[in-house]
Amino acid sequence: MKVKAQLSMSFNLEKCIGCNTCTVACKNVWTNREGAEYMWWNNVETKPGIGYPKRWENQNIWKGGWAKKGDKLVLRYGSRFYMLSNLFMNPHTPEMSDYYGKDGVYTFSYDDLHTSEAQGQQPVARPKSMVTEKEDIGIDWGVNWEDNAGGAHVTGRDDVNFRDFGRKEMEAVLKFRDVFYFYLPRICNHCMNPGCVGACPSGAAYKREEDGIVLIDQNRCRNWRYCISSCPYKKPYYNWASGKMEKCILCYPRVESGMPPVCFHSCVGKIRSFGVILYDMERVERAALAEDHDLVQAQRDIILDPFDADVIRAASREGLSDDWIDAAQRSAVYKIVKKWEIGLPLHPEFRTLPSLFYIPPLAPLMTAAGKDSPSDEDIFDMAAPKKGALLGLDELEKMRLPMAYLASMFGAGNEEVVKRALMRQLAVRHYERSIRVDKKADTRVLTQVGLTENDAKEMVRGLSLAFYNERFVVPTTKREGADMSPYTERGFAGFDQMSLWSPLKRRKSYFRAYHTGEKSYE
Fold it and tell me: What digits encode the pLDDT tens for the residues 330-343?
C-alpha cells in the first residue's frame, strides 16, 4: 500500500443556482490578461447542452482520456506516432470557433462611446473580434450560450448524454412542458490519472507529489497542445500571447496558506466542499482498468479510511505529517464520496479518476396527473409500500431528470450508483420532514437506504448547515518536505510512458532527451 494525499472537491448540484459568482471570481484573479480572454478555468454550464467548448463530452471527436487495450491502459488519442503525424494539424483539438464562434473571442468597440464627434443616433458599443479585429461581428457562441436552458431544444439534440435515448424519447424530454435542466459548474478535476499529463511530450504537465494538484510548467511547455486533446474535460487552454498552455492551478498559492481556492470561497450557494482524501497509489491503474459499470465503485475502493491504524502508519511512512492525516479525517469530501456514497465522478468512463465529485440533483417530482403535488401518493408508508411511495423506485421515475441521463454523466451508464445517491438524499429529506412536521423522527426510511440516524444528522450538517471551516479543511503545505527529485516530485509526468502509474515502463525518447538535457540538440 502506497498512501498518497489528494486535494479533492465536491459540488452539490442540488444547491447550485447558476449565479456564476465562482466564474467571475476566477476570471478576475487568474485570466484577466492578454491571451487568456477566452479561458474560463471555472465555468457553469446548463445541462442538457453541449457545453464549453462545444461537444467537449464527445470523445469520438476529441479522443480525450484513457482507453482499455487488453489489460493495459493507453491514451485514447492514439500512439506517439499518430500524435507526431498530427503535429502541424491536430484534428482532435478544439478550434476558436468551438469556444467563441467563427471570429473568435470578442470585445466591444468602447471607443465609440467616448468620441466627441457629433452623431445622428445614440452611440452603441458593437462587438469586435480580438483575433481578426473585425468590427460589428455576428456573435454565435460563447461560454454561457446555453445558460438557463436557452436553446436547449436545439443544442440539446447534440448532447452525448442522450445517446441511449430514442429520438422520440429525447424530443419528449426537450419539449417546453416537460423540459428539465440543471447547472453543472466545472473546473479542472486534478485527476488521479490525468490524461493531460500522460500525453505531454515535454513533461511540462505534471501532478504534484505532495497534494495531487496538476500543473503545467511554463518553462518546459513547448506548445504541443496534446494536453488539450487528451484532457476529456477540455480544461487546458492555449495562451496565444505567451505561446504556453495554461489551466486551473487550484489556487495553490492560497491552498498552501491553508485557504480554499477562490471559486470555493466565493460560492454563494455554498455548494462546494474541499479537503484531503488518502488513496492507494498502487491500485490506481487497476481501478482505471475496471469495467464501465464498476468504475465508480473501483474509484471509491482506492480511497482509504483515514481512521484506519494501518493506513495512518503507511501514510506516515510516505511522509504525510500529522496535520495532513488530521485534515483527511475531518474532510467533508471523504464523507460525501466514501462514507455516504452520494458523490459521483463526472464521466468516469474517461478513466482519468477525477478528484472532483458531484452530488447529483434531485429534480421536481411529478405525480401521475402531473399537476397534483403534494398528494397522497407522496406519503411513504413503510408498512404498506405502494406505487408512488416516496422511497420507492417509482418515485425516481417520476423525476423530471431522466435517470438514464444522469447515469450517462455520473455512472458510466450504471443507474444503480446514481439511484443510490438520490435515494439517500430523499431519505434524509423525509427524515427531516418527519421531525419538523410529524414531531417524531421516522428512521425507517434511513434503514431502507442503509443510513443511520447519525449519518442523517451529519449529512444535514455537512450539506446544509456547515460552517466555513467544516466545508473547507485545508492543511498548510510544507514545501520544504516535498520530494524534489526530478521524477518523483513531477509525478512521473511525460510522454514517454505507456501508463502514468507504471514508471518502470518509462522509455527514453527524443522528447525526454531534448527536455531533460541527457543529450543536447540545441
Answer: 999 999 999 999 99
Find how far residue 158's CA is from the centre of its chain: 20
Place 175 in a pLDDT band, splitting at 50, 70 and 90: confident
- Residue 153 class from Cβ within 10 Å (0-12 exposed, 13-18 middle, 19+ buried)? middle
Q: Which residues face 301 on adjacent strands?
A: none
3-class DSSP assignment, residue 10: strand
Distance CA 425, CA 334 (A): 17
Retrieve residue 408's grid coordinates.
450517462
Residue identified by cell 524534489 is 484
**Helical packing angle, 309-317 and 322-329, nearest 10°:** 140
Pair type for strands 356-359 and 3-12: parallel
- Per this entry, what is the length of the chain? 522
**Nearest of 92, 181, 96 to residue 143 by alpha carbon:** 96
Q: What does the angle CA 119 – CA 121 – CA 125 come to, to the nearest 5 degrees?
A: 90
List all residues 6 or more positions away from 363 whose beta carbon is below 8 Å from its beta carbon: 180, 182, 399, 400, 401
Which parts of 303-413 fold into alpha helices (H)? 309-317, 322-329, 332-334, 393-397, 403-410
Residues 40, 24: Cα–Cα separation, whole Å: 9
pTM attached to this predicted model: 0.88
- Strand 3-12 and strand 272-280: the pairing is antiparallel
Round to whole Å and give the CA distance between 275 and 328. Answer: 7
